[in-house]
Amino acid sequence: xxxxxxxxxxxxxxxxxxxxxxxxxxxxxxxxxxxxxxxxxxxxxxxxxxxxxxxxxxxxxxxxxxxxxxxxxxxxxxxxxxxxxxxxxxxxxxxxxxxxxxxxxxxxxxxxxxxxxxxxxxxxxxxxxxxxxxxxxxxxxxxxxxxxxxxxxxxxxxxxxxxxxxxxxxxxxxxxxxxxxxxxxxxxxxxxxxxxxxxxxxxxxxxxxxxxxxxxxxxxxxxxxxxxxxxxxxxxxxxxxxxxxxxxxxxxxxxxxxxxxxxxxxxxxxxxxxxxxxxxxxxxxxxxxxxxxxxxxxxxxxxxxxxxxxxxxxxxxxxxxxxxxxxxxxxxxxxxxxxxxxxxxxxxxxxxxxxxxxx
Length: 359
Description:
By secondary structure, the chain is α/β, with parallel strands linked by helices. The protein has 3 domains: 3-95 and 349-358, no CATH class; 104-225, no CATH class; 227-346, no CATH class. The chain has helices spanning 32-46, 60-73, 91-105, 107-121, 124-136, 153-163, 167-176, 178-183, 193-197, 213-236, 247-262, 267-284, 293-299, 305-316, 319-343, and strands spanning 3-11, 17-26, 51-56, 87-89, 355-358.
């Protein structure tokens, strides 16, 4: 069943952030025009004439929905600059895509650890045996094993962060529990990684073997790497505070981290960081994919202003690219100022000034 949820965000006269679910409805399909028509009908029903931005994830159908709304609502009273800045890509979703790129490189190791955790948590008897192993290995940790949701990388991070502390306990469990190895479908001990690489792939029926030392090394290394992205996702996913002014700071921290990792001595992390940088650049360095309002939000913050944006851009981008971005930001500021100067007298309510929607 196809469904869509539309949420409105706006700041009222008391400068308080408001959030309301406008609708939660079934849609016939995921085509762009269908989604766009559903959003249009909802706005008409609620009497909303001004939409400043529409935040969507990066599915291609959402591009079609944006284009539909630009055509159909361009002449509405609250439209700002012909919807030039209507399309806002979900920053948290982009972070998710970047991290998934890194997880794909560690797919085999993550699968092995996930199945190990699943084995321990599948029955009280196995969990009791595992706790006995933890005690014998004298592992001092108050954390408990947690199983992840495979489609949510942040839960995978939490699983790996917790599981890597118990490597020795898992190893001991494999020595004393006959069912442990048969659970993986591995009747013979796999002594090196070459044997596993013969089965490399992500198709169904692939044998997942128990994690070996190399898997745990990768897990520890990747957990340190993921910690930054986990913090960024939590920060950008807030619903009780404004997040648009957080984007630029988090982008700079991610870009700096990936650059350092890609130039580091750790070949494993270097390879992963380079792949993630490519994904980052696809969304945040392509002018067609970048909404400059996210930079404007920082410029309007009295603590940072335009000088801070200039400084940061010069640190993370080549000179020509940084200068082009700065000019675009300045031009956008001038265009918005001119627009609001001309239309300020017509705006009698916060709704007329434009709401931010999220699908």
